[in-house]
Write the structure tokens for this entry.
Amino acid sequence: MSTDVTPTASRTTLGLITAAWHTQSVYAAVALGLPDLVAAGHTGVQALARAAGADEDGVRRLLRLLVRLGVFEESEDGGYRNTEVGDLLRDRPGSLRDVCLLYGKEFYQAWGHASETFRTGRPGFEEAYGQSLISYLRDDADAAKRFQRAMQAQASNFSFDAVPKEIDFAADRHVVDIAGGSGQLLASVLNAAPGARGTLLDLEHALPIARAHLERAVGDDRAALVAGDMFTSPFPKDADTYLLSRVLGDWPDDDCVRLLRKVRESMAEHSRLLVIELVVQDGGDGLLAPLWDLHLLVVNGGRQRTLGEYRELAARSGLSIERLVPLPMEATALVLTPEG
């Protein structure tokens, strides 16, 4: 067998090996607040380092790489300005700053134990922090807020706003979002259904961010927020649409069936359930679904599923998949209805 290695293969391999350095360089820039400082007019290396309370030589070398990564670009006066990527990392509504902080800190630490996860099946997050992600968020209020803001930012930048463009909610009168997190999806749906009211159920620590977002987006009188556990708290009966977005991926099959059966028991014959997830497909197409599949395994022992696996969960729960609605960023809305 030939031992010759092409430069392309070597470069690709090194790129894969050093990709974590990209992550941590971007995380460092965001942790130091560099995108915000640049936007505020601190464009030179010395001014940036001083404003960030950082080492000037380190900042210069960090910026040199981040220009090549497309986060910043050099300006004519020798300073720096944000690219569109850099703007997405600023501390402002709709940015991915909190996603960067979460993935560069807690989730990065979890992935540091990925090989142990693949050997034992135990989430890397538990190896890194000695507790599950859910208990960690319950114990650390700041981390919980960052997590909810990150989930809201992901929703804004990925697929939630596209849902009412692809699915008609005009006739709905009651929409229930189960484990609705930041309220981003429910707000998008209610804005497309002016005659509907909403109910969002989630754990207590998630509700303040959801309340603030829903009040801004749809007003303070269209959505009721309920603190509760989705496995034990009752769901409103006979709603037109129930929402389960990025929930089933966090749980093993039996728990998913338990949850889906609970939804089915709450549904009327006209009700529907929208499940929004990344659907894994065999073959070489689509990177995000298999990547998120591994991420869920490492973070909380979850998984993304194939369409066949979703059909099996639905059948076990008294539901059937009526149709699939493609969404941006490889997401899919599965529309489930009561079976016979």
Q: What stands out?
A: The first strand starts at residue 72 and ends at 74. Residues 141-157 form the longest helix (17 residues). The chain has a mean pLDDT of 93.
